[in-house]
Structure formats: structure tokens, C-alpha cells
Amino acid sequence: MTTLAEETVEARKNVSRAVRIVIPLVALMFVLQTYLGAVVHPGYKFADPDVAFFEITKEVGGNWLQMLAVLGTVLAWGIGDTMAAQAGISRVLFSMERQGHFPKIFARIHPQYKTPYVATIFVALITGPLIYLLPLKDITSLVNFGALTSFIAMHLSLGYIFLAKEKKPLAVIMPAIGFIVTAAVWWGLDKLAKELGFAWLILGFIYLAIITRGFRVKTTLPID
Fold first, then answer.
1. Where does the Amino acid permease/ SLC12A domain start and stop, copy by copy (predicted)?
2. pLDDT tens digit sequence for 109-157
3. DSSP helix/strand/coil, 42
């Protein structure tokens, strides 16, 4: 949602409001879903833990409910999440171009839809073949590494802003909790995810060193 801020009317108010509404709502849904699953199927004994909820839906409603759950997952994750990720990544590339970190072609805006269409097409051309080149489990792990590492960096940055710049020590509590929880989940990632993630991170540092001429050029973004 935050990557679409520039395309949102009254972004400062509406995007922050959307985040405050969606995150608690999604968290509540996940907790409720897990609770109901545990009530129906106590314990942790499944034929395949990766598809545990599909097994639970079959116990509750038979094959038809299981197929309905599978279909809903395909539509929500395979289509909905893919479109959201596609939109988010393309906007990140667009913003990186504006800071001079990517080729100018990524900043091209569609004349009718007012969206960064070149960046969107580029992301599709890169991510599409990965489905066939790498196992889904490895791709998911790599994505989780990037997301969790970004969240860890975000919590550290917030802690620094609240403590060092705004002199609000009590405000550090929430970023500290977020850092601990996120770091614990990050620590539980499998070995391959960490190896691929660190390799990608090293490539990113090398690229950053090149475009900043050995970290001599500042790359900070204005925060208003």
C-alpha cells in the first residue's frame, strides 16, 4: 500500500489510515483462522504440515470444502498477491530511478493509466521465468529473507529516529518489539534462504558502492 502513495489522493492521510486499518484486521484474521484450525484439529499431526489447513477443511466439510479452500488460495495468493507484489516492486524501481539509481527508462509513465508501465513489464519478465527455474519453496524463502531483512532495517531506523533525533525514548518500545519478533522469524529461515539472501545483499552493496562512487555520494531520500 505504501508504495502506491504517489497515486493516492491525500496520500499522507489515506495511506497511513489504510495501514492502521489493514494490519490489525489481517492480524486478527490470521489469529482467528489459526485458533479455529486448532479447535477442529488439536495437536500438530498432519500428513503434510505445509497444507495443514487444506487437510482441516476436508475434515470439516469434505472434498468440496477442501477444493473451495484450494481455489480461494489460488485466487488470493496466485493472482491477488502476485498483482500486489508486481505493483509494489515496479513502484520501488520507479522511485529508485528518480534518485538516479536505475536507468531512466524505468521512470516512463503510461500516458493513459499514469502508471510506470516499463518497470511493471520488466518485473513480469524477470519474475515469470523464476517460477520454472526455481522450486516455489526456494523462491518463497528468498522473498521472506528480503522482506524480513527490510523490516528489521525499518525498525532499527525508527528506533534511531525516535531516540537520537526526536529524543523520545518511550517511542522506541514498539520498534524494539517489532525488531525482536522480526529477527526471531528471520533467524528461523532455512540455510538456503540465508545463503541466497546474503548473496543478493552483497550484490546490492556492490551496486550501491558503484553508483555512489565508493559511498562518497549521499543517497538519502527527503522525508517530509
1. 2-134
2. 888 888 888 988 998 888 888 778 877 777 777 778 888 898 899 999 9
3. coil
Q: Which of 99, 106, 94, 81 is nearest to 26 (CA)?
A: 81
Q: How far apart are CA 2 and CA 11, in angstroms?
A: 9
Q: Do residues 105 and 118 lie in contact, with contact meaning Cβ atoms separated by under 8 Å?
A: yes
CA torsion, points 135, 191, 90, 154, in degrees to nearest 10? 150
Q: What are the residue ranges of helices labelled H in the chain?
A: 11-40, 52-61, 63-73, 82-98, 117-133, 136-160, 173-187, 191-211
The C-alpha angle with vertex 124 and arms to 141 and 11, in degrees rounded to 5, equals 85
For 16, the grid coordinates are: 497511513
Cell of 108: 516512463
- Please give the Cα distance from 54 to 81 (Å, whole number): 19
Q: Which three cell numbers stand for residue 211?
A: 553508483
CB contact set of 40 (below 8 Å; sequence gap of 6+): 56, 59, 60
Residues 6+ apart with CB under 8 A from 183: 152
